[in-house]
């Protein structure tokens, strides 16, 4: 199906393409069962507008998100597109701070899936006990739980604890995945979710086998050799867009 270029609201073609991509991501997350009622959030910077980003309308399920009902806000929380919908304060506070202070963080997702929250709530966090977990060992930050993320002053500690990584595991809470593109964060979250699911399953069977650091290093070195073309996550994301188009293409509207 061709990308729709005529938006139902006044915006550039670049913004409309970004809206469609983000709306598709919400539907894909919902298809995988990664949504959490009307909560959690995925955001995307608006192309050519460094201080503006798109986020879900607070009160809608992920299955109801479309390109046109996404809310465009600036990094100060002001609505820029006349949307009648509010924005979840926790979503704005967390995402707004990252978008403001990390110029590479164009796309961000935060979830409360059972598997990722369970790992975030365990003493050891993510363990090098399976194929997918090895993707991330040494490449995630941890942030101690401070309650619901609605206070801007926590943002400084979030960025500090993220460090040079692109994944931040909020202790007792859930993961934040950041990247340059929506396909990149989709693929990273998909692999992180699998890592956590398998870690939980492994612990249910007994003591896990921990993979040595030197083997983890080889695994991470060689991952690029099995990446499909198009950039991080591109082929994966396009495949799942085709899937959700067969289920319900209304995300494009």
Automatic annotation (TrEMBL):
Q: Which GO terms describe its molecular function?
A: actin filament binding
The terms describing its cellular component in GO are: cytoskeleton
Identify the Gene3D superfamilies for this entry: Class II aldolase/adducin N-terminal domain
Q: Class II aldolase/adducin N-terminal domain: which residues? A: 20-200
Pfam families reported in the protein's UniProt record: Aldolase_II
Which positions make up the signal peptide?
A: none
Write down the superkingdom of origin: Bacteria
What family does the entry list? Belongs to the aldolase class II family.
Give the protein's recorded name: Class II aldolase/adducin family protein
Q: Which organism is it from?
A: Pontixanthobacter rizhaonensis
Q: What is the lineage of its organism?
A: Bacteria, Pseudomonadati, Pseudomonadota, Alphaproteobacteria, Sphingomonadales
